[in-house]
Amino acid sequence: MVICEGNTPTQVSALSDSVWDFVKKEIGEKPLSIDANPTSQWIGMDYGTVIVHIFVPEVQSFYKLENLWSDAKVTSTPDID
User: Of 8, 32, 42, 78, which is most buried by a Cβ count within 10 Å?
Assistant: First the structure.
């Protein structure tokens, strides 16, 4: 599972587009399904063995998906800024 954030709904949509393009180019696969709320505060992309969740920070902190699997290894990547 990949969990990441964009600061705005526009960034969330751009990150989703970037994931789509990167996976299509590198692996040649499209997501099995994509789900999102109407305001693009959250987008989920299901690739079968990997699920990508992209949130705005407020929604991410509300759901805290990383806490659902307490025994999973969490790897954080710092912001690029």
Answer: 42
